Amino acid sequence: MTVHTSTDLRTTFLFPGQGGYDGDALRMAVQKYPQVQRVFERIDAETMSLFSRRISDVLLGARPTDLRELLDDDAWASQVAIYAAGLAAYEILDAQGVRPDVLVGHSLGEITALVAAGAFSVEDGVRIVAQRVAVIQRQNGVEGRMVALSADADRSRRLLDLLDDPMLAVATENHDEQTVVSGPGKTLDRVIAIAGQLGIGAIEIDAPFPFHTPALAPAVPEFAAYVGKLDQHPLQHLVYSPILQRYYEPDDALADRLAEHFVTPVRFAAAIRHLQAAGVDTFVEAGGRAALSKLVVRLTKGSDVRALPSLTVDGDGGLALDATLRVLRDAGLAGVTEAPGLAELLAPTVPADVFEAYWAEHGDEVLRRIADDLDGFTPEPAGTGRPSAQAPSPAPSPGTEATAPAAPAPSSPAPSAEAPDRAEIHTELRTLYAEALEYPEEVFEDGVQLEAELGVDSVKQVELLSRASKRYGLPTREAGFRLENYNTMDKIVDFVVTELSGREAVAAG
User: For 242-291, how does the pLDDT look when each residue is reduced to its tens digit (9 = 90+)?
Assistant: First the structure.
C-alpha cells in the first residue's frame, strides 16, 4: 500500500452519500456557477436514455423539490440527485482553483469521488448509480431502512446482538456518538424501542434501501459484472475509501470493490482520523447539506482543522459555498475567480493585479448582484421608444453650462489625521462579534481562540472579518492574507488598527 506523509496531503474533498442533497442551495448555485448547468447537461442525457426523464427537470424545474419528495419518487431520482450535486460542487471548486490532495466518498459518495478522480466518465457514473438501485430492487424480499443511533459502534453492535437477526448490521461508524444501523424494518422498530429504554437516541435516515447489510449479498455479483463492462481509467487524484480503509491502488478492480460496498460498513470516523494524522487540515464537503463537514468538526474538535460546506444554505439564507471559497482564498488554497475578458471590459485602465485582487474580494458579491438584478429585470419591447434603463440626463439648454453631477457620499468614514484608538476599536469589535454570534461580550478576551475555544468556524470568521472591514472602510485584503494568523480577538484588533494606521498615513501624506 502506498505510504503518504504529512507533506503529501493538506486538502480533502468529501462527497456525501444518503441525505446529501439540498434543493434550495442547488438552485442558488445554478444561477451563479455555469459548471452546474454543464454537469447537468451530461447527466440529463443519461437519465433521458435510462428513464425518459431529465434529472434537471426534476431538481431545477419550476417547483422546488426537497429530498423527502425525491425519496417518494422513483428510487433512482434521489440517488442521481446526490451524485449530481456532488459532481457539480466538485466542478465549481475546481474552476475556482481549489486543488484537492485526496478525495473521500461516504457510501454512495465513493462513486462520485471515483468519477471526480477520472476513473469513470460522468455518464458511466450515472449508469453505476442507476444500476446500484436496479440490482437492489431486483432482490426479492429486500425491505428495510437505516437508523442513526446516538452511540458508538461497539455499544450499537451489542444492542443489535440482543435481537440476533443476521440481516441487521452496523452500516456506518460516523463518530463516537453516532452509528448508523441497517436492516429489516420490523427489526429496526425493535431496535428503536430498545434504544429508547437504554436512553439511546434513534433517528431514521433518508435512504431508499438498507445499504451496507448482509441482506444485499445476492446483489453483489450482478452489480460487479455490470460495472466490470464499463471503461475504467487511471485515477487522476488519490481516493481514500472509508469502506476499504485504504487508498485505491492503480491495479484495483473497481467493479469488485464497489460491489463489496453493498455488504461492508463505512468507517468514516476512522478515515477522517487517518487523514488528519497524514497532515490534512482542510476538509471541503463537495455536495448537498453539511452533514459530513459537521462530522469532521466533531471528530477533530480542538484542532486547527477546517471543515467547510458547499451546497447548503447558510444561517443568513445565502449559499455556504460563497463563504467557503473566501476562506479557501484567504488560506491560499484557491485561485482568483476566473473572469476572462472582464478586466478589459470593466476596467481597461486598471492594472491586472489590482483587478484580480478586487475580484478575489468582491467577485462573488458582484455576480450575486447581477443575478439578483436580472431575476427581476424585464426588458422593454423593441420599438416602444422607451429605454429599459434609467434615461440619461437631458442635454443643457443652449447658452447654459452643464453642471457635473454631485459625487456620491463615500461609503466608509473619512480618514482623520489622528491615529486610531485601539481601546475604542477593541470595544467596538467585541460588541460586533458578540451581537453577531449571540455571545456575551466578556468571552472575547484578547487571547481567546475563536475556533478552538469558542467554536467559531472559519466560514463565520471570514464573514465577521468582512463586517469589520466594511465597518472601518478597510481596503481589500492582500492576496497573501491568511485567516489563521488572525484567530484571536487581540490579533483582529491589531489587524484593524494596522490597516487604519496605514490609511491615516496615506491620507496625511
Answer: 999 999 999 999 999 999 999 999 999 999 999 999 999 999 999 999 99
pLDDT digit string (tens) for 348-370? 566 655 666 676 667 666 765 67
Q: Report, in this order, helix, strand and coil percent for the chain, each rounded to 5.
A: 50, 10, 40
286: helix, coil or strand?
coil
Report pLDDT digits (tens) over 426-438: 888 888 888 888 7
* 326 pLDDT higher than 70: yes
Q: 171, 228 in Cβ contact below 8 A?
A: no
Choose among 161, 12, 3: nearest CA to 90: 12
Listed residue (67, 64, 52) closest to 16, CA to CA: 67
- Spell out where 122-168 has E strands: 145-149
CB-count exposure of residue 320 (10 Å: 0-12, 13-18, 19+): buried
CA atoms within 13 A on the CB side of 35: 16
- pTM higher than 0.85 for the full model? no
Angle between helices 320-330 and 352-375 (to 10 degrees): 180
The residue count of the chain comes to 509
- The set of cell numbers assigned to 133 is 438501485
Categorize the per-residue pLDDT at 126 as very low, low, confident or very high, splitting at 50, 70 and 90.
very high
**Helices 75-95, 122-137: crossing angle, 10 deg rounding:** 160
Alpha-helical (H) ranges within 15-101 are 23-32, 34-51, 55-60, 67-72, 75-95
**What is the predicted pLDDT for the residue at 389?**
42
The CA–CA distances, whole Å, from 508 to 312, 414, 419 equal 46, 12, 11
Q: How many CA atoms lie within 13 A of 476 on its CB side?
A: 16
* Cβ atoms of residues 25 and 320 within 8 Å: yes
Please state the rounded mean pLDDT for residues 134-146: 81
What CA–CA distance (Å, rounded) separates 235 from 117? 5
The rounded distance, in Å, linking the Cα atoms of 82 and 68 is 13
CA 24, CA 28: separation in Å to the nearest integer?
6
Q: pLDDT band at 463, cuts 50/70/90?
A: confident
